[in-house]
Amino acid sequence: MNAEIARATAADAALGGQFLTFILNGEEYGVDILRVQEIKGWERATEIPNTPDYICGVINLRGTIMPVLELRLRFGMEAIEHNATTVIIVLRIRNDEGRERTMGFVVDAVSDVYNIPAAEFQSTPDFGGQIRTDYVKGLAMIEEKMVILLDIDYLVSNDDAFGDAVTAAVDAVAEV
Domains, the chain, ranges and CATH? Predict the structure, then answer.
């Protein structure tokens, strides 16, 4: 029992830290700032055939071909016109084997950077088996607003269809 409590306490402590927050469909989301490589203005990606709608394509980031994903579409939100506030957040993603890759995520706008102590985290409510929330690390109240904190590694690595689509996009570009 003490080992379980120690693991839970260690996991809770790991939740705290700094988070870059961004806007999607009027809601605020956050990712661990240590995973952010850079934030760049919107640029159109080169589309890859036979990939899901939420994969915009690929861009050349200083000589590295990188997949770009539209988080709005990935989360089932309606597409909107990209504008001056639309950005690509370049994140370092780790798969289950610990291999790291760089991917871009299109968001409506960047919001802020917050230091969120572990004590401020709230667990994700259970919506039942029909709604997947396993990629949500937790929720936090910041300045009277709810921020949804994402586990971006889990979002990419643990959805077979998503992972397969990203791999196919990267492989297609590598063959060119």
Answer: 17-174 (2.40.50.180)
DSSP H or E segment with residue 27: strand 27-32
CB–CB of 52/165 below 8 Å? yes
Which residues in the chain show pLDDT less than 50? 1-13
What pLDDT score does 172 carry?
Answer: 56
Cα→Cα distances 150→6, 19, 33, 49, 78, Å: 24, 10, 11, 28, 20
d(CA 48, CA 37): 24
C-alpha of 8 from chain center? 24
Q: How far apart are CA 156 and CA 164, in angstroms?
A: 10
CA distances from 92 to 74, 95, 148, 152 (A): 18, 10, 19, 9
CA angle 91, 97, 98 (to 5 degrees): 40
- What's the pLDDT at 2? 35
3-class DSSP state of 21? strand
Give the Cα separation of 42 and 30 in Å (integer).
19
